[in-house]
Amino acid sequence: MMLPSQPLDTPTRHDLWERFADHFLDSETRPTIPSTAAACVAAGLPTSEAFDIWRFEVTPAVWSNVYDLTGQWGAWPREWLVRRIEEVGLTKRSRTAGVPANIVYRSRVHWLHRIWGAIAACIELLQTTVADRRDELTADLTWLAGRFFDAEHVGRATSQPRLARLYPTVFMPVFGPLVVTNHVTGESPLACHRRIVAVLGELAP
Predict the structure, then answer these.
(1) Bridge-partner residues for 182, per DSSP?
(2) What crossing angle do the helices spanning 134-148 and 113-127 adopt, rounded to 10°?
(3) Which residues contact 151 (CB under 8 A, 6 or more apart)?
(4) Which candidate, 156, 124, 132, 126, places its Cα nearest to that of 142?
(5) DSSP category for residue 187
């Protein structure tokens, strides 16, 4: 168990705001979940404190983008995002504790709460990994997620045997629930699984 963290400095908090807010963009962000979690671990945040930032600071400021057909998709202008969170996400009302706050949060994020669940799971995985192996695990999970969700620019593969071990036991429990069956894009649990099996087979010696 991690000890309570020290207060975040402003640049670190703003970086975490940006990383969390990216998951509310209208674009493929699931492969960045491991690096988002790694940033939380590097900042010394327990999962509960990271969730407070996600739920009470970032979500109120950008949640509506998920439902906007013409919303932001490429990247948030950092200055705008910081100002928006300071004006909306840090209000006294957004810090109200208890059941009503949780109801408001869940009514806003719906399915997107699964993204938070995956971030939290990756935080816990990285926290229980020795420090000098965390970058390796982050890179492996990022690569697997990129191939699993058919994304681009996810880095180079590392050890095929290690990736093959991680996939069923570590990766799938975290990322499997994030599959969205979509007949238009062709995404389905089976299609995602077949992509991984094929690419791991290509990497095998």
Answers:
(1) 187
(2) 150
(3) 28, 30, 31, 145
(4) 156
(5) B
Task: Tally Cβ neighbours within 10 Å of residue 199.
Answer: 17
CB atoms within 10 A of CB 151: 16
As separate numbers, helices (DSSP H) first and strands (DSSP E) second, the chain gives 11, 0
Is 19 in contact with 39 (CB distance < 8 Å)?
A: yes
Rounded-to-integer distance, Cα 175 and Cα 118, Å: 7
How far apart are the C-alpha atoms of 52 and 99, rounded to whole Å? 14
pLDDT in tens, 151-163: 776 677 778 999 9
Hey, how many other C-beta atoms are within 10 angstroms of the C-beta on 27? 11
Angle at 129 between CA 36 and CA 198, to 5 degrees: 70
Tell me the pLDDT tens digit for each residue of 116-163. 999 999 999 999 999 999 999 999 999 999 999 987 766 777 789 999
Distance CA 154, CA 147 (A): 8
Q: Residue 175's pLDDT is what?
A: 98
**Cβ-contact 122, 45 below 8 angstroms:** no
At residue 146, the pLDDT reads 93
Q: Report yes or no on whether pTM surpasses 0.85.
A: yes
Name residue 3's amino acid: L
